[in-house]
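User: quick one, fold this
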Amino acid sequence: MNVASTVGAVLALFIASAAVMYWSRHRAAPDAVGRVLRLLALAATAGIAVALLPFTVDDSGAAAAYLLGVPVLAAVCPVVADLAGRAVAVTTTVAALVLLAWGLLLGLGVGLWFLIPALLLGTAVVAGIASRGAAVTGGQGAR
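Assistant:
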């Protein structure tokens, strides 16, 4: 993975996040934005884990199971919480922090790539806060 693929992936995710945020303003269900971002974070985490699996197994051997398993498990938890309808905001926040910490802990190795799903989950948390604020005020805002 070179610099060009990194920049391309970051730009693609930025454009996808911007499109989702734009789409959220014109959609009736504001919770759909958070759901889409959580699913996008899960897909990005799974894709990154699959892409890094051969390198990580060659480099770390059996430790690859937890080096790549922790971020995947952290990205699965918000999706499961969303499907269950329980503690979605808390689970998404904790998962974003776990992915961020894991990415920083393993930053010189494979962890840097897991900052992208951490940013997506952080965006999902912010989108959830914005949608709850709109629901409380009735979409009218402050008068």
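User: anything notable?
Assistant: The mean pLDDT is 79.
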